[in-house]
Amino acid sequence: MLSAFEIHVSDEVLRDLYCRLTRTRWLDSPIKPGWAYGTNLAYLKELVAYWRDGFNWRAQELELNRFAHFQTALNGYKLHFIHQRGRGAERIPLLLLHGWPDSFYRFHKMIPMLADPGVAGIDADVSFDVVVPSLPGFGWTNSPAEIDPEQPLRQYAALLRRLMTETLGYDRFVVAGGDGGSVLAQIMAVDDPESVAAIYLTDLGWNRMTADPGALPPAAKRYLAESKKLFMKESAYVMVQSTKPQTLAYPLNDSPAGLAAWIVEKFQSMKGSDDL
User: Fold this and answer.
1) What total of structural domains would you count in the chain?
2) Which domain holds residue 183?
3) DSSP conformation class of 40
4) Other Cβ atoms closer than 10 A to 227
5) Which tens digits make up the pLDDT trace of 150-176?
6) Which of 26, 90, 173, 189 is most deeply buried (CB count within 10 A of its CB)?
7) pLDDT tens string 223-265
8) Residue 26 lies in a domain
9) Buried b (16+ CB within 10 A) or exposed e, 116-147
10) CATH code of 128's domain
């Protein structure tokens, strides 16, 4: 069953958030300042203070609700998604997939331009029917009650394929994604080439290649070597979240400052600078 959806967080939840941010128990600053050991204390205090006293969630709700939101029951999920229909003589169905630490909000600037190129001053006959879901466990899509231990990503890919073909009725569509969304786009293309017309990836995702690297050209070998170094330096969160996510979920759900510290450190490292 497909139904219109509006984002609204209760006053009670917002009051609880305010109280939790106010009661944050801060650690001592490490001997070495900056981000060398993780999230910078001074930056996090400033961020939490802004979140508590300066950030206007109600204004954000108004901005987000300008999109066409829906929710549907599918494969045991209450799946939330945006379905912004394009304007123009020709419309191409486009599925946009976010990753972590992320949400459908990743695409909020692009959705209007893709659905109506005229918004960006582009004179084009082609536009997109833009579909942006909240992946399972993100935003207003519930976490799975049961995960296929062997192929969890294929479980999600099948869910998204059903959304596009059965719920929305598209025979052929394009998929674009980054991070975890990149991996899902690749799986969808491999598993259902009749439905997936093309994919666009902002990255390949973490290297999972098992082939003998000795058979690869020099450029590919260098890429794999650098990827391995980066994985060892920056991927502790991947190991925890992919093997023991439930243990981590308790403290991050209970402490909004802790959740902010966990996420903002990844944004800082992705930016590649000591100044966020």
Assistant:
1) 1
2) 67-201
3) -
4) 14
5) 678 899 999 999 999 999 999 999 999
6) 173
7) 888 877 777 777 788 888 888 888 999 999 999 999 999 999 9
8) no
9) bbeeeeeeeeebbbbbbbbbbebbebeebeee
10) 3.40.50.1820
73 Cβ neighbours under 8 A, 6+ residues apart: 1, 79
In a domain? residue 37: no
Residues 2-53: tens digit of each pLDDT: 999 999 999 999 999 999 999 999 988 777 778 888 899 999 999 999 999 9
Q: Residue 82: which of 12, 132, 16, 142 has the closest Cα?
A: 132
141, 165 Cβ separation under 8 angstroms: no
Q: Which pTM value belongs to this model?
A: 0.89
Enumerate the β-bridge partners of residue 73. Answer: 78
Residues 135 and 42: their CA atoms lie apart, in Å, by 32
**231 part of a folded domain:** no
pLDDT given for residue 205 in this prediction: 67
What's the longest Cα–Cα distance across the chain?
Answer: 62
Residue 223 lies in a domain: no
Its sign, for the CA torsion 92, 93, 97, 98, is positive
For β-strands 69-74 and 196-201, DSSP reports them as: unpaired
Alpha-carbon distance of 204 to 179, in angstroms, equals: 7
